[in-house]
Structures are given as structure tokens and as C-alpha cells.
Prior knowledge:
Elements: H1 8-25, E1 36-44, E2 70-79, E3 88-91, E4 94-97, E5 101-106, E6 118-121, E7 130-140, E8 146-156, E9 166-172, E10 184-186, H2 187-211, E11 212-213, E12 218-222, E13 228-230, H3 232-240, H4 264-268, H5 272-278, E14 290-295, E15 310-316, H6 330-337, H7 355-362, H8 369-373, H9 383-405
Parallel strand pairs: 2-9, 13-15
Antiparallel strand pairs: 1-2, 1-6, 3-4, 5-8, 6-7, 7-8, 9-10, 11-12, 12-13, 14-15
Amino acid sequence: xxxxxxxxxxxxxxxxxxxxxxxxxxxxxxxxxxxxxxxxxxxxxxxxxxxxxxxxxxxxxxxxxxxxxxxxxxxxxxxxxxxxxxxxxxxxxxxxxxxxxxxxxxxxxxxxxxxxxxxxxxxxxxxxxxxxxxxxxxxxxxxxxxxxxxxxxxxxxxxxxxxxxxxxxxxxxxxxxxxxxxxxxxxxxxxxxxxxxxxxxxxxxxxxxxxxxxxxxxxxxxxxxxxxxxxxxxxxxxxxxxxxxxxxxxxxxxxxxxxxxxxxxxxxxxxxxxxxxxxxxxxxxxxxxxxxxxxxxxxxxxxxxxxxxxxxxxxxxxxxxxxxxxxxxxxxxxxxxxxxxxxxxxxxxxxxxxxxxxxxxxxxxxxxxxxxxxxxxxxxxxxxxxxxxxxxxxxxxxxxxxxxxxx
Length: 407
């Protein structure tokens, strides 16, 4: 602002207010002073449970012949489950221990708990202490999500087996806030997603080992003429989609080590990278994917300090010379456009089943275990193909993994 009018003080107040609003909307912030506890939770499935026709309440019976049915949720984290303390009281029948009761909190975006649910604390190994939920209170945050306060009491302190009463098994996930991934998923979906995630992590390490050049601190490939080629568009794809981030909070730093030109973002939108991001198979053939290379003349850059020569990739319109090979291969491009899948029964083509992952991505089709497994035998004729295809495989695998977890 000018010399007389200023909004600095107002802006500072709004920033502080916004900061605390964000804290309030963070489901973990309000409970960061409460101890987290891992439990196995049994959520009452009212669809499959029989209720008393008069009272509409469930029968007080969780034995083998119980009419109750539950969905079991492994590895659920509750907050505020305190250390069990026993107290003795004297009544007309002598000394008795009081009921073990307490409150705990279930953070938002998990599932809807209900009275009559059970849970057992995982770290109690010598016996199965089943706690019953006797009351549920909902607290709605500003963003519309619901946290739940659960009141519980110890119902059984012997080994009670609920396996016969379980309809479905689920697993609670630890997901980063801000993602759209559900926090409770079926165990079979979790197993699929975990296998895909492990494969993606393997590809990230593979790509890093193949192409990271420590001398210039970025990703380089060498073509048949032994040109060392640096592709700013590939780097942009890695940055935008966090391709090299993994699930253990470690991150391979990826940055542009030389300045990008003024129309870089416009040019990027014309590349096949953007086609994959937008899932626009109709634009694939017309996208820029012809690779040519220019000598890097960036004085003062890390390339300038090296004795070997480096080249910067650029893309020419596919209809203009020079007619170079497409970065991801002519055959694969046309297989994607024509929706031509690799036949899993063709022994000669079976090692190339991984191609179906890229093809099916554009058509929202489920991938198979065999297609993911074929990545273990991944082979490329040219380094250039590996340089471009591996990040695209990681991108498609992670997109599919998210779709599995959001079923």
C-alpha cells in the first residue's frame, strides 16, 4: 500500500486468525495432548444384526448364537484411552470392584460409531478385554467433519471370540490430512493397494539409481550417441506430481537447476506429460513428444562447471522434422490410442504386460496382479525409454492405488 493507507496490521490479524482456524480444523490438533491407543474395533452392522422388535435394541448376547453382526476394523487409533484403574467399594454383598468406565475420542473422517460397538486394546496381550460403547456424542468441526466422543465400560474380561459374528474386515489407514483417501478400507483392498505402493517405491529407487547424476545433482540420461540429456519437462512432471516421494516421509529433492524459459508452462501443456495428467487420450497423438537436444549454454550453472557436455531436451511438433523416435516409443503410443492390450496368454508378449498399466489408466480399467508383477522383469532397449516410462508407470500406479482405497 501507499504511505498513508495501509492494511498491514489488518492482514497480520487475519493471518493469525486463519492460522488458528486451520488448527481447529485439523482433526489431530485438538487431541495432541491425549494419548493415542491402537485397538481392534467392532462396529455394529445394523443391516445384518437382529434387533428386539419391541425395544429396537440389540439382544444382550455376543455368544456364538448372537443375532449381532459386526464389521471388524484393525489398527484403529483412538485418543484419550487412559490407564485402567480399579477401585473397590463395600456394599451389602461385601467388597466389589467398581465398573471400569471412561471416555475416548475418534477423530473425523473415519466411520460412524454407534452404541453397542465393542473394542479391544491391542497392547493387552494376555487376555481379551472387550469394552462396550455405551454412549456416542458428535462434535461437528467448521469444515463439516464429525469427531466422536465415545463413552465406554469394560464389558468382558475373558477371551471372547467374535470371529463368528464378523461380516467384513477393514483396516484403518494413516493418511496425510488433505488427501481424499478414506481412512477405513476393506482388508482385501488394502492388500492390493499395499502391493501397488511397494511396487511404486521399488520403481522410484530403480529410477533414482539409473538416472540420478551426482555431479550435476539432477536426472540425466544418455542416448545412443552418448549425449547427456537433461529434460526440464520431465523435471516439471516429477515436481508437479511428487513422483519421487515415498510413504516414509523421505523425499528425493527435485528442482529445476537451470532457469526455465518464459513460455515454459505453455509449452509444457503441449507435451505428453500433460496428456497423462489430464488423462486425455484424444490429445496423445497430437502432443509434443519428438525429442531433440540443444547444447546447454548456461554460464554459472552446475553444467558450466563440468568438463563433459550436457544437452537440454526440447520437443518439436510430431509432424515437423527431425523425425526422431517418440520418447515412450511409437508402438506404445499407438497401443494406448487404439486401446490395444497385451495378451496375457501370449508367452512371447507376457514380459510386456506392464504396458497394460499405462493403457488401462486412460480407460479407467482395473489392472491385474500379473501386470504389476511384470514390472519386476522390466527391461528397456534404450535408456531414453526407461527415463520416460518409469515415472509414467509410477504416476499411473499411484493413481490406481488411490482409486482402490476410495472404493
